Amino acid sequence: MKKLSLILAMTMALGLLVGCGAKEEAKDAAPKTETTAPAATTEQQAAYKDGTYRAEGKEFDAKSGWKGTVEITVKGGKIEAVNWDAVHKDGGDTKKVQSQDGRYDMVKGGASAHWHEQAASMEKALVEKQDPAAIVLKEDGKTDAVTGVSIHVSEFVQLAQEALESAK
Hints:
Strand order of the largest sheet: 1-2-3
Order of helices and strands: HHEEEHHH
Largest sheet: 3 strands, antiparallel
Strand content: 15-25%
Number of helices: 5
Helix content: 25-40%
Structural class: alpha+beta
Number of strands: 3
């Protein structure tokens, strides 16, 4: 009986070693690959003509009275600066100015950040991505692609695309 127990224990131990060894070999045998993006061609690097391009919404929003504006500066074929703002149907200071001085205060209404801060995050995202189409929109016109942005950005993306049409 002791012999049978000893043989059984040794068989189990051997089975564990062989089983574990096979898994390690399988891990090591898997080819290690690294994916890198191909180097950008000169055409991709100079995707846009240098200049300053502007687009403005066609109509004022019926509820808020704001109409978005986007100005994009291209240098060396790349988007260098973006300014997203809005003008009001009654005139006066822009939405960005009113947000900066507290007259357009979204935080009081429960927003996580002021409008001008969220606009700056979107401007930065466009400079980084170099293509408004790379900003993924949800069905409600918002995006999860830019941290800290909870406002509707579909107008920003649309206006940026319109502005850059002249830069191609």
